[in-house]
Amino acid sequence: MERLHMHQIRDVIYRVRQGQSDRQIARDLGVSRLTVKKYRVLGEKEGYLAGSGGLPTNAELMAAIGRSEGHTSELQSLR
Fold first, then answer.
1. Residue 75's pLDDT band (cuts 50, 70, 90)
2. Which one of 3, 19, 33, 64 is CB 3.0 to 4.6 Å from 26, fit for a cystine?
3. How many CB atoms lie within 10 A of CB 49?
4. Distance of CA 48 to CAs 6, 12, 30, 74, Å?
5. 40 and 24 Cβ atoms separated by less than 8 Å
6. Contact (CB, 8 A) for 43 and 49
7. At 29, which helix (H) or strand (E)?
8. 6-45 burial string, b = 16+ CB within 10 Å, else e?
9. 3, 65, 7: which is closest to 31 by C-alpha?
10. For residue 72, is it left (φ>0), alpha (ψ between -120 and 50) or beta?
11. What is the tens place of the pLDDT at every residue in 28-55?
12. Per-residue pLDDT tens over the stretch 9-26
C-alpha cells in the first residue's frame, strides 16, 4: 500500500463522504484500492466520515495515522 500526502488523504475522505466507490477513488487518484480502503477504514474509526464537520486537519490526521499504525510520537519516546 502506498503512503499518501495529507492532502491526498483528505481527498480520499472527502470523496468517500460524497459516496464515491473505492474503485473510482483509486482510479482518479492513481492509487490502489487497498490504499483507499486503509484510509476509509481510518476515517470511519475516527469519525471523519460523518460529513457534519469539516475535513480533519494535518495534526488530526497525523495523530490518527500514528494511532492506527501503533507509532508513538518522537517526543514521547525521548522522555
1. very low
2. 33
3. 14
4. 14, 11, 22, 25
5. no
6. yes
7. helix 22-29
8. eebbbbbbbbbeeebebeebbeebebebebbebbbebbee
9. 3
10. beta
11. 999 999 999 999 999 999 989 987 778 8
12. 999 999 999 999 999 999
Neighbours of 55 (CB within 10 A): 15
Q: For residue 13, what is its C-alpha cell? A: 475522505
The set of residues, in sequence order, having a beta carbon less than 8 Å from that of 45 and lying 6+ positions away, is 64, 68
- Give the whole-angstrom CA distance, residue 68 versus residue 36: 15
Provide the 3-class DSSP secondary structure of residue 21. coil
Cα(47)–Cα(53) distance, integer angstroms: 10
Nearest in space to 14 (alpha carbons), one of 61, 62, 59, 79: 61
